[in-house]
Amino acid sequence: MSSLWHSITVAPALGVVLGLAPVMLVRQRSEKGKQSGHAPDRPPFVVRVIRVISQCVLQIGCWFITTAGTRITVEGLENLPEKGPLLIAARHYHHLYDGCILLRCIPRRMHIFVALDWIRTRWQRSLMEWACTTLVWPTVLRTERLFLTTDGQEGERIFRIDEVKKYLRNAVKDAMLLLRQGEGLVIFPEAYPNVDPDPNPKDCGAAFLPFRAGFVRLVALAERDKQTRVAIVPTGFCYTPGKRRWQVTLRLGTPLYRQDYEDATALASVIEERVQELSH
């Protein structure tokens, strides 16, 4: 699977950094229990508490971010399955607001497939890896962008080329597990947004980039257990500049299923067409 998706640069760190105090409190109590001889909290429980706290703080942060910078209209919310594996294949217009709007407006817990190759310093890498691990957000590196980021010292790289496969392998495993557990996953198959602090292929004026079909292959891998059936929801964004805030329309299409299409290429093509239609 060669598709590598762009990251939300603030949201994952926000969920963990703002939730750091309560998270550390939970961990500290667990450690005290171990040292005092009392039975410590079961690891699954501690992990669940940490994730719930981070998710709640993340939702609040996304609400503040989107309220300050956007006015949002949501269409097609009734198309979302209330439960079960869900993959949202969305247009990528804004590097920050897209993810924050989805996290705010989707009435389910969502995980975002992100790329970390925009990182320029080692402390950013440590923070983002920790944040994404806590939130259970699969992370990858886009090979074509890997060597464009440095930590300020000429020739020194934040990521090594031999790390690409490891990141991709772990991301696929994490994403498959999320879908098999009935969770929601957001993917931006274009890989790059229109509004981005860093140069990207859309700088040439392209409104849309061709979808990378890796997200469909990911669904196929998750469904190999013969029990998982992933609903793929094409999702469009329409941004209109306002005096102070973006006017944003989020449109959710009807779910599509891999079994209804001949192959991954055909399904990816249909989803790409629908996402473009929903974005106008």
Word description of this protein:
The structure is a single chain. By secondary structure, the chain is an alpha/beta fold. The protein has a single domain (11-278), classed as Glycerol-3-phosphate (1)-acyltransferase (3-Layer(aba) Sandwich). It is 41% helix and 14% strand. It has eight helices and eight strands, in the order H-H-H-E-E-H-E-E-H-E-H-E-H-E-E-H. The chain has a six-stranded mixed β-sheet, with helices on both faces. The chain has a two-stranded parallel ribbon with strand order 4-5. Helix 5 (122-135) links the parallel strand 4 (114-115) and strand 5 (139-140). Helix 3 (43-69) packs across helix 4 (97-105). 40% of the residues are buried.
List keywords for this structure.
single chain, 280 residues, alpha/beta, Glycerol-3-phosphate (1)-acyltransferase, 6-stranded mixed beta sheet, two-stranded parallel sheet, 8 helices, globular, disordered N terminus
- Termini separation: 29 Å
Low-confidence stretches: 1-10, 15-43, 149-155
The helix content is 40-55%
Indicate the CATH class.
Alpha Beta
Instruction: Estimate the strand proportion.
Output: 5-15%
The CATH topology annotation reads as: Glycerol-3-phosphate (1)-acyltransferase
Number of helices: 8
CATH architecture level-2 label:
3-Layer(aba) Sandwich
Give a count of the beta strands, DSSP E runs of length 2 or more. Answer: 8
Largest sheet: 6 strands, mixed
| H and E string | HHHEEHEEHEHEHEEH
Strand order of the largest sheet: 1-8-7-2-6-3
Number of separate structural domains: 1
Task: Write down the Rg.
Answer: 19 Å
Q: Which of globular, elongated, flat, extended, rod-shaped describes the shape? A: globular
Mean pLDDT: 83
Q: Which structural category fits the helices and strands? A: alpha/beta
